[in-house]
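hiii so um. not sure if this is the right channel but i have a protein structure encoded as C-alpha cells and i wanna go backwards to a sequence. like what aa goes where. can anyone help
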C-alpha cells in the first residue's frame, strides 16, 4: 500500500520546463552605472486553450494502461530490476486520447515574449542573472524552467578592469613630466579629476586614485583607479625648437639622468 501511495505522488510530479539561456552585451559605462535591458525571447508557453493539459476542451487525459499511471515501468536488467520512464506516455502517466487542436497535445505552444533584465551596478563580465520561471513551460501544467541571462562586458577604449579596480595607461607630455604638473583624468561617470604628476616623472610610474574604480557589487564602496603614465616625447621639432633643446641639453649634468649614470656604473663593474 505504501509503495503504491508513493508512486501515486510521483504521478503528479510532471516534468519541469527546460531552462533557457540568453546573452546581453553592455558597455563598461553601463556596468558602472547599472542598466536595464530588453530581450526578445521565443519560448514554450502554456497553451491557454487547454490550460496546459494537452486535451481538447471538455475532455480529460486517460490513465496510461502500460504503466497504470505511474509514469515508470520496471524491466529486468541482468540480476536487477530497474525503473525506466514509460515509453507509452513518456513518463507522464497519462495518455491524451483527444488532443487539443491548438497545441497538438503538448500542453504548450511557442510564443515570443519581451522581458526586462535589470543589470546591477558593478556587474562583472560573465555574470549570470537568473529570472525564475521565465524558461520553457513545464509538461501539462508543471512548473516552468528558469531563464539565465549572461552578461558580456565589451572591451573599453582606454580602460582595463580587474575586479573592482580599473587601470589606465595615459600619455603625459615630455615637458609636464619634467617640470611636474596636473593632468585631467576622465572617469566612467563622465566627471574628471585632477592628478598631480611630480617633477621628473618617468614612463611606467603608477598612481592610485582611491575609490575611483568600479562599484563593488552589493556594497557601497568602489575599487581604485590606477594611472600608469607614458612620457611622450615630441614627435617632431622645428629648427628653433631644436636649438633651444640643444642649449637646454648642454646645461644638464650627469646627475640630471640618474638612470643613465646607474647603468654606466653597473656596466663598468
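sure thing!! here u go:
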Amino acid at each position: 500500500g505504501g509503495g503504491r501511495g508513493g508512486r501515486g505522488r510521483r504521478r503528479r510530479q510532471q516534468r519541469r520546463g527546460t531552462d533557457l539561456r540568453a546573452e546581453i552585451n553592455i558597455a563598461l559605462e553601463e556596468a558602472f552605472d547599472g542598466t536595464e535591458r530588453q530581450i526578445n525571447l521565443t519560448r514554450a508557453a502554456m497553451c491557454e486553450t487547454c490550460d496546459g493539459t494537452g486535451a481538447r476542451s471538455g475532455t480529460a487525459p486517460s490513465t496510461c494502461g502500460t504503466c497504470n499511471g505511474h509514469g515508470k515501468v520496471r524491466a529486468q536488467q541482468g540480476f536487477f530490476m530497474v525503473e525506466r520512464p514509460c515509453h507509452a506516455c513518456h513518463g507522464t502517466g497519462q495518455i491524451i486520447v483527444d488532443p487539443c487542436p491548438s497545441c497538438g497535445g503538448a500542453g504548450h505552444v511557442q510564443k515570443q515574449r519581451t522581458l526586462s533584465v535589470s543589470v546591477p551596478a558593478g556587474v562583472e563580465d560573465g555574470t549570470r542573472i537568473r529570472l525564475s520561471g521565465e524558461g520553457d513551460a513545464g509538461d501539462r501544467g508543471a512548473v516552468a524552467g528558469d531563464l539565465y541571462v549572461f552578461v558580456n562586458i565589451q572591451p573599453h577604449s582606454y580602460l582595463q578592469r580587474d575586479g573592482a579596480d580599473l587601470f589606465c595607461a595615459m600619455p603625459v607630455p615630455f615637458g609636464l613630466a619634467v617640470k611636474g604638473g596636473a593632468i585631467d583624468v576622465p572617469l566612467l561617470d563622465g566627471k574628471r579629476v585632477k592628478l598631480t604628476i611630480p617633477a621628473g616623472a618617468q614612463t611606467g610610474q603608477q598612481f592610485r586614485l582611491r575609490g575611483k574604480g568600479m562599484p563593488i557589487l552589493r556594497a557601497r564602496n568602489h575599487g581604485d583607479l590606477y594611472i600608469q603614465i607614458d612620457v611622450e616625447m615630441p614627435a617632431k621639432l622645428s629648427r628653433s625648437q631644436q636649438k633651444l633643446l640643444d642649449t637646454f641639453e648642454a646645461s644638464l649634468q650627469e646627475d640630471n639622468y640618474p638612470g643613465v649614470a646607474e647603468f654606466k656604473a653597473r656596466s663598468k663593474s
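oh and DSSP finds five helices and 15 strands in the chain.
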